[in-house]
Amino acid sequence: MAIAASSSVRVLCVDDEPGLADLAGSYLERAHEAIVSVSQDRVDEAVAHFDDSRFDAIISDFDMPEMTGLEFLEVVRETDPAIPFILYTGKGSEEIASEAISKGVTEYMQKQTDPDHYSVLANRVLNAVEQYRTERELEEERARFQSVFEQASDAMIIAEDDGSYVNVNSAACELFGRSEEELLGKTPADFTYTDFDFDTNWESFKEVKEERGLYPVEQPDGTVIVAEYAASADILPGKHLSVLRDITERREYERKLSLQKERLSEFAGVLSHDLRNPTQVAKGHIDILSNGTDADEWEQHQEAAFNAITRIDHVINDVLAISQEDGASRESTEVALSDMAEDVWQRVNPHGKDPQIEQDIVVSADEDRLERLVTNLFRNVIEHGDKSAIVAMGTLTERDGFYIEDDGPGIASEARDQVFEWQHSTKDGGTGIGLKSVKQITEAEGWSVKITDGSLGGARFEFSTEAGS
Question: How many domains does the chain contain in total?
Answer without folding.
Answer: 4
